[in-house]
Amino acid sequence: MKKRESILEEFNKLPRGTLVMTGKLYREKYSSLMSEAAFAQAVSRLYRSGEIERVSKGVYCRPKKTQFGKILPSEREIIEWFTEGDSGVVVGYGLYNLLGVTTQISKKQMVYSSLPDEQLKQIGNVTIRKYDLEYTHEIKSMIQMMELLHHYKEIQDINVSALSRCTAKLAGEYSEEAFEAVQGSICYPKWTVAFLREVLNYHNIPNNLGMHLSALTNYPIPKMEELYETA
């Protein structure tokens, strides 16, 4: 089978609109069969022939076909693809909207995912940052909590009541193992860890976060009354 036909067959195995990262495809299926340059040329010929479409650098798909022409994956479909199952989580204003913490909407969307083949991938208005985690419910909850606390002062038109409810719920789902996994990969600053410790202590959730902090440092974090009692 010719190189071009073999690569097209891999695309044809997937539903139309499914994203294919060609760098990952090369490493998993073709690195022992052809050079990277030859693979890139074969992909380029498929693109020029119209059999596949370029979504972003290194990302292609077989487009959906309608009476109005070819349709590439929507922003929502791109986000879903990178976050499906245990593969990722939405952060930024997409997360804040989902949790009802603000009604402000951003044109730019952010996702943390294990799927990209590079540390930062930009597809249209969607930025995908690679973190090698298994995005279980516990890991997602931990990231959501850390993102809320880390960006607390930056969230526009923040609904403090909604934020207090979300952090209370997420505190109840706290897992020491999930924290260690998330912190080991994303490395939030110590003041964010200190903020998390104060939230957990406020809700009487046992934790060992003090081992990550200095007893001599006065971390710049809000008082719990600001987050809860005023809500």
Structural class: alpha+beta
The SSE string, one letter per element, is HEHHEEEEHEHEEEHHHHH
Q: How much strand content do the residues show?
A: 5-15%
Task: Give the uncertain stretches in residue-range form.
Answer: none
Indicate the percent of residues in helices. 40-55%
Using only C-alpha atoms, the radius of gyration works out to: 22 Å
The largest sheet has its strands arranged as 6-7-9-8
User: What is the number of strand segments?
Assistant: 9
How would you describe the shape?
A: elongated
**Count of alpha and pi helical runs:** 10
First and last CA, distance: 66 Å
Largest sheet: 4 strands, mixed
Mean pLDDT: 92
Could you provide a short overview of the structure?
With 231 residues, the protein is an alpha+beta fold.
